[in-house]
């Protein structure tokens, strides 16, 4: 048949398969070719990665310039992250402001970051347009803020932040403050009676111990196990801010953040026991054993009175927030309660110790001011009402915090919805903002002789002074901290004179608490 004839040998073409040039090579030559091919491929991929990084970097810079910002030069991929993670970043911001103005932009890896010490910009961000800047700028490793059930006040945003703030405000009411004052007096007695005299003392260590004892008494009623775990947690803090961290990689490679978070969690699971985790476990256990209907004797009990079981309490979209429309109820979930206690404990001990350290340093260097305070308080009984009516003492504290706004690294915001300010600057969603409090407090156009310790400058109030933050997210514990500082200082000056020590230094660095610690400060206390 025709079809079968087509298959006959006479109609079949003869095909010869020619061997590939590679097949004739000896095995070791094939391996060599394969290694060269891999090397070429890696080089090509690396080159493409570099090209992409440069293009992406330039795109981010051009976007910031289009939005009206002066942009500080930076490296592709890294951006200005080495500067932003430096333990001396607060000083470097001031140097950059001299060159680029009061508001300028940086790149934190791939995250646009605006630094500002402009009073107009600060007010608009923190007050006028708060609904677009209701969140602090968060570490990328905290990117699961919408799903975490144990978020604390500082990391929360939107309606959840308002609910937590409303719930915690009861513990800082005047009624509660009177209770805290009694506990402060007990711990201040311990400070006064055990103070080493006529010898060189490390001020920061002294006041860290004092502040931690006050916090332990007020937050969880001085439980001995709590004191021990809290002390261990405190001792685990204090490392200088560093470029070499997992957070840095997350800033540089945002798309890898979930993987980096997973690595961080595994490291914490299999690494040494974290003292902070032990302290949190103690707080959770103590809160679980407490009854909600007990009379409040500590901060824990105040929060226990508004504790609820429900995990979903209807906070809604936290990124879409209108503070004028949002109504907050007083309630904290079981998972949230230990986190609030931990946050208050760490924040309360750290900032108070820093302020007392720096204030005593300044008084040791300015004996005339120390004598003037003593003349005002020497015969006073330092009760709550008396301490609230000592304006000169208040001015001294304000002036200390103007010269050393040690909580300035915490003064951040993140834009949650695009907005253009009256200055013409446009902020895209996700842009982070750092309030440069240090430069604001040393601006010679706003403060006369800004480097001098002059408490009298606060005889007139100033809206340019923001050591506790500004706007609705101002520090919730400000009144508590000021009362603790005043009580300790009055009791000290009624009994002792503070002398400077030759060779003492004041070394300031940003620490892992995101506050600026004063180290190397030594003084001598002399009995009057």
From TrEMBL:
One of its GO terms (molecular function) is heme binding. Heme binds at residue 475. Its cofactor is heme. The keyword Cell membrane does not apply. Keywords: Heme, Iron, Membrane, Metal-binding, Monooxygenase, Oxidoreductase, Transmembrane, Transmembrane helix. This is Cytochrome P450. The chain crosses the membrane at residues 37-55, 243-263. Pfam families: p450. The lineage of its organism: Eukaryota, Metazoa, Ecdysozoa, Nematoda, Chromadorea. It comes from Pristionchus entomophagus. Belongs to the cytochrome P450 family.
């Amino acid at each position: 048949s025709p079809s079968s004839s087509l298959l006959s040998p006479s109609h079949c073409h003869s095909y010869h398969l020619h061997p590939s040039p590679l097949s004739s090579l000896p095995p070791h030559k094939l391996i060599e070719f394969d290694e060269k091919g891999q090397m070429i491929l890696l080089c090509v991929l690396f080159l493409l990665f570099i090209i992409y990084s440069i293009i992406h970097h330039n795109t981010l810079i051009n976007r910031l310039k289009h939005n009206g910002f002066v942009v500080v030069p930076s490296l592709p991929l890294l951006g200005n992250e080495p500067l932003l993670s430096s333990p001396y970043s607060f000083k470097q911001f001031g140097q950059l402001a001299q060159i680029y103005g009061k508001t300028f932009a940086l790149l934190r890896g791939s995250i646009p970051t605006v630094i500002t010490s402009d009073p107009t910009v600060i007010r608009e961000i923190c007050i006028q347009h708060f609904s677009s800047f209701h969140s602090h700028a968060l570490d990328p490793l905290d990117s699961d803020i919408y799903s975490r059930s144990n978020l604390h006040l500082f990391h929360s945003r939107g309606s959840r932040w308002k609910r937590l703030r409303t719930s915690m405000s009861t513990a800082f009411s005047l009624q509660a403050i009177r209770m805290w004052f009694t506990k402060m007096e007990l711990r201040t007695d311990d400070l006064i009676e055990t103070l080493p005299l006529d010898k060189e003392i490390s001020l920061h260590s002294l006041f860290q111990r004092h502040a931690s004892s006050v916090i332990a008494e007020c937050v969880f009623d001085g439980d001995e196990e709590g004191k021990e775990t809290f002390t261990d947690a405190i001792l685990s803090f204090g490392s200088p801010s560093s470029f070499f961290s997992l957070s840095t990689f997350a800033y540089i490679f945002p798309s890898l953040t979930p993987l980096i978070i997973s690595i961080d969690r595994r490291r914490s699971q299999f690494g040494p026991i974290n003292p902070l985790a032990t302290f949190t476990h103690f707080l959770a256990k103590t809160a679980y054993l407490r009854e909600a209907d007990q009379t409040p004797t500590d901060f824990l009990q105040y929060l226990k009175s508004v504790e609820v079981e429900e995990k979903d309490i209807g906070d809604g979209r936290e990124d879409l927030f209108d503070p004028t429309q949002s109504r907050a109820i007083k309630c904290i979930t079981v998972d949230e309660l230990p986190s609030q206690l931990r946050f208050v404990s760490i924040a309360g001990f750290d900032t108070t110790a820093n302020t007392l350290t720096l204030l005593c340093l300044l008084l040791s260097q300015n004996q005339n001011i120390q004598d003037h305070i003593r003349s005002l308080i020497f015969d006073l009984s330092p009760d709550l009402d008396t301490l609230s009516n000592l304006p000169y003492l208040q001015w001294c504290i304000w002036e200390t915090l103007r010269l050393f706004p040690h909580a300035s690294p915490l003064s951040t915001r993140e834009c949650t919805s695009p907005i253009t300010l009256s200055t013409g600057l446009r902020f895209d969603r996700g842009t982070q903002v750092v309030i440069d409090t240090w430069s604001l407090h040393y601006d010679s156009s706003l403060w006369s002789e800004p480097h001098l310790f002059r408490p009298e400058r606060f005889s007139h109030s100033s809206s340019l002074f923001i050591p506790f933050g500004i706007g609705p997210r101002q520090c919730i514990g400000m009144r508590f901290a000021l009362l603790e500082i005043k009580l300790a200082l009055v009791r000290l000056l009624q009994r002792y004179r503070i002398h400077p020590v030759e060779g003492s230094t004041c070394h300031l660095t940003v620490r892992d608490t995101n506050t600026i610690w004063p180290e190397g400060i030594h003084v001598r206390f002399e009995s009057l």
